[in-house]
Amino acid sequence: MPPRKRTDSTWVIVAWSLNVAGILGIVLVALAYWALNPVQAAQSPNIFQAQNAIVTATYPATSAAPVGIYYLPTITPNPLSTMIVVQTPTQFVLTSNHRATIIGYSVSGRPIEVYTFGQGERKKMIVAGIHGGYEWNTIALADELITYIDEHPEVIPTDVTLYILRNLNPDGDARDHGIDGRVNDHGVDLNRNFPTNWASNWDRDGCWNYGPTTGGTGPGSEPETRALMNFLQTHKIETLISYHSAALGVFPGGEPWEKNSIRFAEALAKVTKYPFPPIDTGCIFTGTLADYAVETGAVSVDMELATHKYTDFSKNLKALQVLLTWEK
Ligand SMILES: [Zn+2]
After folding, report:
1. Ligand 1 mean position to 188 CA, how many Å?
2. What is the pLDDT of residues 110-138, one digit of tens each?
3. Residues 176 and 270 in one domain
4. What is the Å distance from ligand 1's center to 136 Cα?
5. How far is the CA of 88 from the centre of ligand 1 (A)?
6. Is 118 left (phi over 0), alpha (psi -120 to 50) or beta?
7. C-alpha 15 to ligand 1 mean position (Å)
8. What is the pTM of this model?
9. Could you give the count of Cα atoms lying within 13 Å of 98 in the half-sphere of its Cβ?
10. What CATH code is carried by the domain that includes residue 208?
11. Residues 144 and 207 in one domain
12. What's the number of domains the chain is made of?
């Protein structure tokens, strides 16, 4: 037993030595901490200054969250239970001082803008975006033409005024660049809402039928339609192109086709290579802008770009020449 007792006392000595060494270590760390941070209290004014600096700092208007870092989940509003937040009226702004005239507002309050070029007696008009985001490339084309003419004002003959309505259906354009973007915020096909041969419903055989759509509750029931009707009634438009997409060709206005509009369609088809006569799908068109424009005395066509994707700019620059120089 004595040897074992000796072993025990050896372990007790080792344990106490470790304790003492540990306590000494703590004391040394405390001393070192105190020695290296002698002006602890002096930090207070520094903190105060730092806070002041943050409070009074101004950030540049362009400051943005770091790219690729998102801290918050997105909130998807229910369109049936929340108000529609009207987005920035338009991302399209010319670098010159040339501004659009607002001729009305969409169902959800987006402005309908017309750009005016020239001051001549003979009034010509281009309308784009009647089918909203489904035919967004017509709006892109209108913007390209507006930009081009703004930079080359000499293309407008002195006896001509050209109006470009860049987007008749801004709500549809804001909703979707696809099938869901075709109608306005009342679910109305605006190119079925004009008073000429108006119908609320139609035989869908051969017609666009990828989603629910109506001609409206009555002729010209929609604010977008009425804004353009008022404009046409007060501006005596001579010649009008209503842009669509895609691929079917150039449709003269009038029911049956008005003869000057047929000649105009042929001339446009010749420079653009868009089909004329247009491709007949068997669809009966009611309440169209082109038919209504003929009724107001204009020579008028529906003209379809070749795809839903491209603006066919160079082709439509030639079409612009035909429009600007067209004599009745
Ligand atoms: Zn269309």
Report:
1. 13
2. 999 999 999 999 999 999 999 999 999 99
3. yes
4. 10
5. 24
6. left
7. 91
8. 0.74
9. 22
10. 3.40.630.10
11. yes
12. 2
